[in-house]
């Protein structure tokens, strides 16, 4: 089972393994893989739809609002099928009337979000009334529907949870609806905390997390995890290891077969605890022991569209939940370091998903290695995609998203130093990013909290700004 290989040899053997298969659509059916693996099905997110404006000078005097609504309703049915976890309710067509909008507000009870389709000029008043109902709200306004779009920035500055898709592309409706799901999904989520939570003070507070996001934390002791591990049938663990790890790995380097079976057994134990507690995420300060490290377990959870986050890092755990629900992509928690000679950040850690494109994507080539810090257990060296645009993010203090757009330019090889999975990513200004690390928000905190960032495939900066608006958060660009 043991075979020596260095990073360059690994990449050479995988040069022909590239290519990618995307799930299709924006975060299309992000929960399907977890449900197929045994997690309970989450209810559809209910989005109430209202069409505002009957016509007039804009778009044109002979505008047929009912025909326009029928066109949008047909498209929304396609959106429902593509996203797979939304239900559209309402569908009312109202005139440019504050009174009509006010009469509609009570009917919004029970909805998780609100989609307003702006049809005609003079709709600013009724749009404002509906936004003031307090639901996470998206407004779709195609060109020549009028000029009521100009009020939205004022509402946003006033703290309203509203975003505007001013666009001729109906695909922006998909994007808006995908983001509208996130606040509801966060309220429906529970996170197992094995050991104790780490991170910023607000993120360590179950009460503050519940107040801000609606997410519940479920404490799990070391003894409870160990008991769950011992209860797993060794034959089930062997079947899991064979199916998901042993037959799929490009090479197995340091770990023994027993190390990998133990990792698979821990995955099944954590899976059982998560399903029992209706949890969509787990984070652990016991991830390097009790009774083995959780690197492979967390990797598979992330492959399934769930969250496995190391070192009890609640800020990163919540970031991964947010982005998973919004974009259908797993996060790679990293310990960044800088290579100023390349205007770049090096991202490195021993826990990476193998499906960085999302649960419907192809698995990246990987080696099974030891956890590098102590050369124990089983961890992964995943070949991340050179040339891939990425977003590095971190939700801190429950109210601010640190964000940067980057691009993977190479896989480093410093004599097999540092964590197992690595990539070098070019940034806009590495010197500025280094000098301002923490952005004045994370200056007085522990090393892990200051250090960690989470990497996601794709450039999600614009959509994350909208997501932050819907969640009542700020965005701070790094570098």
Task: Describe, in plain words, how this protein is organized in 3D.
- The chain is of the alpha/beta class.
- The protein folds into two domains: about 5-20 and about 190-475, no CATH class; about 45-185, Flavodoxin domain (Rossmann fold, 3-Layer(aba) Sandwich).
- Helix content is about 35%, strand content about 25%.
- It has 16 helices and 20 strands.
- The strands form four sheets. Strands 11, 12, 13, 16, 17, 18, 19 and 20 form an eight-stranded mixed β-sheet that branches.
- Helix 4 (about 100-105) runs parallel beside helix 5.
- The longest helix is centred in the middle third of the chain and has 20 residues, at about 255-275.
- It starts with 6 loop residues before the first helix and ends with a strand.
- The relative contact order is 0.13.
- Residues about 1-25 have low confidence and may be disordered.
Q: How are the SSEs placed, and which strands pair?
A:
Blueprint (H helix, E strand, L loop, with lengths): L6 H7 L18 H5 L8 E8 L12 H19 L2 E9 L3 H7 L8 E6 L5 H8 L4 E6 L10 H6 L4 E5 L4 H17 L2 E5 L11 H8 L2 E5 L1 H10 L2 H13 L4 E2 L4 H20 L4 E4 L10 H9 L3 E4 L3 H14 L4 E3 L2 E3 L4 E6 L16 E6 L4 E7 L6 E8 L3 E11 L10 E6 L3 H6 L11 H5 L1 E5 L3 H11 L2 E4 L2
Parallel strand pairs: 1-2, 1-3, 3-4, 4-5, 6-7, 6-9, 8-14, 9-10, 17-20
Antiparallel strand pairs: 11-19, 12-13, 13-18, 14-15, 16-17, 16-19, 17-18
Helix pairs in contact: 4-5, 7-13, 7-16, 9-11, 10-11, 11-12
């Amino acid at each position: 089972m043991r075979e020596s290989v260095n990073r360059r040899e690994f990449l050479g053997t995988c040069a022909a393994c590239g290519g990618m298969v995307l799930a299709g659509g924006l975060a299309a059916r992000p929960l399907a893989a977890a449900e197929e693996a045994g997690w309970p099905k989450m209810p559809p997110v209910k989005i109430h739809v209202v069409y505002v404006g009957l016509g007039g000078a804009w778009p044109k005097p002979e505008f047929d609002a009912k025909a326009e609504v029928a066109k949008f309703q047909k498209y929304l049915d396609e959106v429902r099928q593509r996203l797979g976890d939304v239900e559209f309710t309402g569908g009312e067509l109202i005139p440019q009337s504050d009174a009509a909008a006010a009469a509609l507000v009570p009917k919004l009870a029970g909805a998780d979000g609100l989609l307003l389709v702006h049809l005609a000029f003079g709709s600013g008043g009724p749009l404002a009334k509906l936004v003031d109902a307090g639901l996470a709200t998206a407004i779709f306004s195609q060109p020549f529907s009028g000029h009521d779009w100009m009020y939205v920035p004022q509402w946003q500055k006033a703290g309203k949870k509203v975003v505007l898709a001013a666009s001729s592309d109906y695909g922006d409706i998909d994007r808006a609806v995908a983001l509208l799901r996130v606040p509801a999904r966060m309220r429906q989520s529970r996170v197992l905390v094995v050991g104790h939570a780490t991170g910023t003070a607000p993120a360590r507070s179950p009460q503050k997390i519940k107040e801000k996001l609606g997410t519940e934390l479920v404490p799990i002791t070391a003894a409870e995890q160990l008991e769950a591990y011992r209860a797993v049938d060794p034959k089930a663990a062997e079947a899991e290891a064979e199916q998901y790890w042993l037959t799929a790995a490009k090479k197995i380097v340091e770990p023994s077969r027993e190390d990998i079976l133990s990792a698979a057994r821990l995955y099944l134990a954590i899976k059982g605890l998560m399903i029992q507690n209706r949890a969509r995420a787990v984070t652990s300060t016991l991830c390097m022991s009790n009774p083995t490290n959780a690197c492979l377990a967390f990797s598979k959870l992330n492959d399934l569209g769930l969250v496995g986050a190391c070192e009890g890092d609640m800020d990163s755990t919540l970031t991964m939940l947010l982005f998973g629900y919004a974009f259908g992509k797993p996060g790679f928690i990293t310990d960044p370091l800088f290579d100023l000679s390349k205007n770049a950040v090096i991202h490195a850690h021993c826990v990476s998903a193998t499906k960085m494109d999302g649960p419907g994507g192809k698995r990246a080539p990987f080696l099974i290695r030891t956890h590098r810090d102590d050369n124990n257990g089983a961890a992964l060296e995943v070949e991340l995609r050179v040339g891939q645009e990425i977003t590095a993010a971190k939700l801190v203090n429950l109210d601010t998203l640190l964000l940067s757009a980057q691009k993977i330019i190479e896989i480093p090889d410093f004599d097999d130093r540092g964590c197992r999975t690595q990539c070098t990513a070019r940034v806009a200004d590495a010197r500025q990013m280094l000098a301002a690390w923490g952005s004045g928000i994370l200056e007085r905190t522990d090393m892990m909290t200051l250090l960690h960032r989470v990497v996601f495939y794709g450039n999600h900066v614009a959509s994350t700004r909208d997501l932050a608006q819907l969640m009542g958060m700020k965005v701070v660009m790094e570098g």
